[in-house]
Specification:
By secondary structure, this protein is an alpha+beta fold. Helix content is about 45%, strand content about 10%. The radius of gyration is 20 Å and the shape is globular. Bound molecules: adenosine-5'-diphosphate, 2-acetamido-2-deoxy-1-O-phosphono-alpha-D-glucopyranose and magnesium ion.
């Protein structure tokens, strides 16, 4: 019996699975939950050990996910399918919490864009997802992580981690720290505009990176938006921006060789075409004007989050080696600085698409 079968077979068997469990193995590249592929004699499932340090209220979290997935299913849209426990609950609650989804077959997730058309398809799908959420009653949602994309708050957290420097690591990343500190004046625009009403508050996904969407392995079309843990009120800038942060790069998020990491304006254009086409009827002028800023903001915010986690001893994001978070931070800084130099080009592209 494999190590993971040994550890998790009893857990898996507490859910309403079809068939007998024959194999369990780690799956995917998520940074937050522990994800496993469960194979039975009949079909496959995803089992997740939920990260209750990050999501401290699993009951509300699962209520959000059940609400949203039922809303989508009722409209015939392919989405995650929550498999209940044998006691009829949406997740298994104990010292650790677990949930199971149907494995969505014949799909792939990408860690890097390999095809412009696929990236454009993902933009269209995230845009359409935004439209579906617009029809969802926001009062039914609990905010799973407070102030998730409040960049000034993220900056304050970063400064606290730097101040503590609990692992004496600040000495290894002076340049990166300086970059984050020196850009403070750029951090407040989205939150200020949300507060004043200049930007509309919407229900957003908030974690729209490319590996949170399943693409059809044959056609490259988008099949399902996944990782629904962070659906909550936010700005369109967050969803558009986070996709660009991850996908409009010439390299992986954790590429060590910075010479390979560049912001790719053609990929930006491909995604923007797909996304804007989908939200054309609802996007406001101010949102359209700030989409390029959203890309920059999500990138530098993610950079400061990786750096804060590095300084705090890597307790938030899953890491594979010491310094992994610093490597990730460096790619985000490289991308953010190239985006800063490309605002004019990005503005032109958005204006052209939406004209
Ligand atoms: P995390 O919150 O850790 O990012 P995700 O929910 O995004 O966890 O899952 C991690 C990965 O597992 C995804 O990027 C995807 O590759 C895969 N995955 C998750 N759910 C499914 C599913 N229902 N069907 C197929 N693959 C899935
Ligand atoms: C995390 O869960 P995952 O791996 O899809 C994180 C995002 C970051 C991303 C960086 C809940 O996403 O906010 O942008 O890593 N999710 C959470 O890759 O913090
Ligand atoms: Mg994920």
């Amino acid at each position: 019996m494999s190590e993971y079968m040994h550890l998790y077979k009893d857990v898996a068997e507490q859910f309403c699975l079809v068939g007998d469990v024959t194999e369990i193995c780690p799956y995917g590249e998520g940074h937050i939950n522990q994800t496993f592929l469960v194979t039975t004699t009949e079909k496959r499932y995803i089992l997740q050990k939920m990260n209750t340090r990050v999501f401290t209220d699993p009951d509300s979290l699962m209520a959000n996910i059940c609400g949203v997935t039922e809303h989508l299913q009722a409209r015939g849209i392919e989405t995650l399918n929550v498999i209940p426990t044998k006691e009829g609950k949406s997740f298994l609650k104990g010292a650790d919490c677990y949930r199971v989804y149907d494995f969505i077959e014949n799909t792939v997730t990408y860690q890097k864009v390999t095809d412009k058309e696929v990236f454009k398809n993902s933009g269209k799908a995230f845009g359409e997802f935004q439209n579906y959420l617009a029809e969802f009653d926001a009062s039914k949602l609990t905010e799973t992580i407070k102030r998730f994309h409040d960049t000034p708050k993220r900056f304050a957290d970063f400064k606290a981690a730097l101040e503590a420097d609990a692992f004496n690591r600040a000495k290894d990343c002076r340049e990166e720290i300086e970059f984050i500190l020196s850009h403070e004046p750029t951090y407040g625009i989205a939150m200020a505009d949300l507060k004043s009403g200049a930007l509309p508050l919407r229900v957003t996904h908030n974690d729209t990176k490319l590996n949170n969407i399943l693409m059809d392995e044959k056609t490259g079309a988008a099949r399902a938006v996944i990782d629904l843990d962070t659906i909550m009120p936010g700005s369109m800038l967050f969803d558009f921006g986070d996709s660009i942060r991850f996908g409009a790069s010439t390299a992986a998020e954790d590429e060590k060789d910075l010479d390979k990491v560049h912001f790719d304006i053609e990929l930006f254009q491909a995604y923007a075409e797909g996304y804007c086409e989908a939200v054309r009827d609802s996007i406001t002028d101010r949102e359209a004007q700030l989409l390029p800023y959203g890309a920059y903001l999500m990138t530098i915010e993610c950079g400061m989050r990786f750096l804060a986690d590095y300084l705090s001893g890597d307790t938030y994001f899953a890491t594979k080696y010491e310094g992994h978070n610093l490597v990730r931070c460096r790619t985000q800084i490289r991308l953010a600085s190239e985006m800063e130099a490309s605002f004019e080009a990005m503005d032109k592209i958005i204006a052209e698409i939406l004209k």
